[in-house]
Design brief:
Length: 106
């Protein structure tokens, strides 16, 4: 194998692996708020793929990903996945036992 062929293979491998990396959609990163009765919830999605779910009394950290352009997955420490969906500039997350929360980007 010549040096030129080896470099071409290495470049092809690097491009393939970078295409497999999880996307951090620019449209998803940011700060979102939702109100449920007397509780305000602040959802922060950082470019690093980490996020926080904050209320007046608690803050929960998680990892997040966007498997599709309009979908959001919040990965909990326990291994669960909370799914959300972007629609018309809003983020809707359905929580078992709570219902749907609609977040507005701030």
């Amino acid at each position: 194998m010549t040096l030129r062929t080896a470099l071409a293979c290495l470049l092809a491998l690097a491009l393939t692996l970078s295409a497999c990396a999880p996307d951090r959609e620019d449209h998803a990163t940011g700060r979102y708020t939702a109100a449920t009765g007397d509780t305000d919830i602040v959802l922060t999605l950082a470019e690093s793929g980490r996020g926080t779910w904050s209320t007046d009394t608690d803050e929960i950290t998680f990892k997040w990903s966007t498997p599709k352009a309009d979908h959001l997955w919040l990965h909990t420490r326990e291994g669960g996945v909370i799914q959300g969906r972007f629609n018309d500039g809003r983020l809707t997350i359905a929580l078992p036992g709570v219902g749907e929360l609609v977040f507005e980007r701030q």
